[in-house]
Design a protein that fits this description.
Number of domains: 2
CATH class of the largest domain: Alpha Beta
Distance between the termini: 57 Å
Order of helices and strands: HHEEEHEEEHHHEHEHEEHHEHEEEEEHEE
Shape: elongated
Helix content: 25-40%
Largest sheet: 6 strands, mixed
Number of strands: 18
Length: 376
């Protein structure tokens, strides 16, 4: 059975979320204009401006209380903004009810009807809209095939695993053919292995159906794995917006550097002594080389001496915490290409020299834009 969840007029480029399809229209799938949400004296969202492209897998990443879920709920219509506007494909929907918006939402708790079988759960919205039975059956079958659950129509939710129930919830959202699908931490209840498998599945499904996915998560790996672009939220604002590699490799602020992946921060007297610059700098642990105390740095490199204070062996790699003579501590991550756990742990207490390329020491701000691109 062929899967045809997209509208007939959707181009092949749009189905893959390609840049060619996005360029076909200047109207974003979702536009947020100075969006604000307050509850009394508490400001949950503090003036968010954002465009999400048509056919894009977009993630809102941040810790609890950062404003990402509240922003998603305002897009869905579950919360009304205190200020600002929400536009879907150019239409102002700020004051419209959820059912009047061409969006669907998938939640972490699945919200399946336990007394209905899988087919009836997926087709419930179509039944409410009085879609004829034959058309309803065809679309339910297509949606279940898309999430690889075709043949499960007669099972009850209680007969399914957690991952299968999540797929049913996704099929129920997709069967209505929304132009935008909102996902609020949908994998949070799954164990690690299943969550990783579902990350790949969600990205595959999004590319096949071609609709815009907006995904809320506090899990940086999820956001980096699945997203075309992501926005890092903090204290109700977007601290950085960009492609996963850009956000990871070139964090704009101190918060982003610390939240997205593991990062070292070097500042004060230590930064002045080692880098010759004032300010706060971030260096990713995998960018640093653990060398012998006699090794000389190259012309484009920086070196700092210290001793290994702690060692953590985690299988594929080892993490070394190095106390520098200049007064700071840096984490170094090295792949265990030939190092055994015994050899790695024996490094504790050794005098070492850390070496890294100058361009990998990035100056970051406490908030706002990046101070410098990197050291020359």
């Amino acid at each position: 059975m062929a899967s045809t969840l997209t509208d007939p007029g959707v181009t092949a480029g749009m189905r893959t979320g390609s840049s060619d399809a996005r360029a076909a229209s200047d109207v974003p799938a979702v536009r947020l204009e100075r969006l604000v949400k307050r509850w009394g004296d508490v400001t949950a969202v503090a003036g968010v401006d954002l465009d999400v492209h048509d056919g894009e897998f977009f993630s809102m990443l941040g810790p609890s209380g950062s404003g990402k879920t509240t922003t998603l709920r305002m897009i869905a219509g579950f919360e009304l903004p205190t200020e600002g506007r929400v536009l879907l494909h150019g239409q102002d929907v700020t004051r419209l009810a959820p059912f009047e918006r061409d969006v669907n939402t998938v939640f972490q708790d699945y919200a399946l009807f336990p007394h209905l079988n899988v087919g009836d759960n997926v087709g419930y919205g179509l039944m409410v809209r009085k879609v004829p039975r034959a058309e309803r059956t065809r679309r339910v079958d297509e949606a279940l095939e898309m999430v690889r659950l075709f043949g499960y129509q007669k099972r009850k939710p209680g007969q399914l695993s957690g991952g299968q129930r999540q797929r049913v919830a996704l099929a129920r959202a997709l069967v209505n053919r929304p132009r935008v699908l909102l996902l609020d931490e949908p994998l949070g209840a799954l164990d690690l292995k299943l969550r990783e498998e579902m990350q790949i599945e969600l990205k595959r499904i999004q590319q096949e159906v071609g609709i815009t996915f907006i995904y809320v998560t506090h899990d940086q790996e999820e956001a980096l794995t699945m997203s075309d672009r992501l926005a890092v939220f903090n204290a109700g604002r977007i601290e950085q917006l960009g492609a996963p590699a850009e956000v990871y490799e070139r964090p704009a602020t101190r918060f982003v550097a610390g939240f997205v992946g593991t990062s070292n921060l070097l500042s004060g007297a230590a930064a002045q002594a080692i880098l010759g610059h004032e300010g706060t700098f971030t260096i990713r642990p995998e960018k640093i080389r653990l060398a012998g105390p006699e090794e000389q740095a190259g012309p484009s490199e920086v070196a700092a001496d210290g001793h290994v204070r702690d060692v953590v062996y985690v299988g594929p790699d080892t993490r070394y915490l190095v106390a520098l003579d200049a007064g700071a501590e840096l984490m170094v991550t090295q792949q265990n290409l030939s190092t055994s756990s015994t050899e790695a742990l024996a490094a504790q207490g050794r005098t070492v020299r850390l070496v890294w390329d100058r361009q990998h020491a990035l100056a970051v701000a406490d908030g706002g834009a990046r101070v410098e691109e990197g050291l020359a």
